[in-house]
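chain below, 209 aa
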Amino acid sequence: MNILVLGATGRVGSHVVSLALKDGHQVIALVRTLSKLNITDENFENLLVKQGNVLNREDIASAMAKADIVISTLNTDGASTLTDSFPLILQEMKKRKINRIITVGTAGILQSRLTPNLLRYQSSESKRKTTRAAKEHHNVLKILEQSDMEWTIVCPTYLPDGHYTGQYRVERDFLPDGGTEISVADTAEFTYQQIQSTKYVKSRVGIAY
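prediction:
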């Protein structure tokens, strides 16, 4: 499978790239800064690195030319990167008949258990002092919901580097009850596993220990 990874230099994205390479997939990584890509996997020859920006339609088109599926671990960059890039990403996917996209969001866009008609970031359930990032991820959710794509949004709670355990809980639309954190490595594993699964298509998935 040819997997386009957006956000490949980030904490979750770099783990996703390594997992895909270890399984023998062809990985395309669109990165702004080549020096930030730190991949030492033995299957490095299966990695195609494209330098570019997700805010540039031509860069996205070039990276997506041979992709079968898209995994996005993009963050907000403290700006409107997600809101601005996702329409471009989905337009190129539609043009190239790529239907599956898996993204990493935030637990803030899951439903609140305390106030079910609100998202967590909109309710007292969230302890975050700022909602800026959650609003960006909420925009991605709305863009995906209005699309014809087979999307899945993996929504981790507090995300320390931690260690890989392979033992975690997931729940559709909600954060697993009492969940307070999940490691980068475990989040990456679950995100990567969704390339072979249709269980959570058109769904948000909360993940926590």
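The chain has one domain: 2-208. The first strand starts at residue 2 and ends at 6.
thats it, cya
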